[in-house]
Each structure stands twice: as structure tokens, then as C-alpha cells.
Amino acid sequence: MKFHLVVISLVFLAVPLTAQDALLPYATGTVTEFLQANKASGLPSIVLYNFNLDSG
């Protein structure tokens, strides 16, 4: 039983080391960079603009 707990602990510690960069649920930067990156990777693109300057 102790061996299993050690193995599970090591797996949980190793997962973040092998993980790739997590994708953000939003994009930062310019719209042009966002569209070019998505076009290059074949992903669909949706751009939302916030024109309410009071809310940020």
C-alpha cells in the first residue's frame, strides 16, 4: 500500500514538469497577432471588443 502511495505521489509531482504551456481562456496582445497565430495553427478565431471604457 505504501508503494502505491509513493508511486501516485511521484506521478503527481512529475505531471507539472512534463506539462506543456497551458492555454489561456483569453488572448493577450494585438488582434493581428492573435489572428495570425490562430491561422497558422488552424484554429478558429473569435474577437470580442469591449467598448465600455468605464468597466475596463
Structural account:
This protein is mainly alpha-helical and 56 residues long. The protein is 50% helix and 0% strand. The protein is built from 2 helices and no strands. It has helices at residues 2-18, 31-41. It is elongated and about 55 Å long. The termini are far apart.
Which characteristics define this entry?
single chain, mainly alpha, 50% helix, 56 residues
Proportion of strand residues: under 5%
Total E-strand runs: 0
Helix content: 40-55%
Report how far the terminal alpha carbons are from each other.
53 Å
The assigned structural class equals mainly alpha
Note the total helix count: 2
Please summarize the sheet with the most strands: none
| SSE pattern, N- to C-terminal | HH
- Low-confidence segments: none
Mean of pLDDT: 79
The radius of gyration computed from the alpha-carbon positions, rounded to a whole number of angstroms, is 20 Å
Query: Could you say which overall geometry the principal axes of the C-alpha atoms support?
Result: elongated
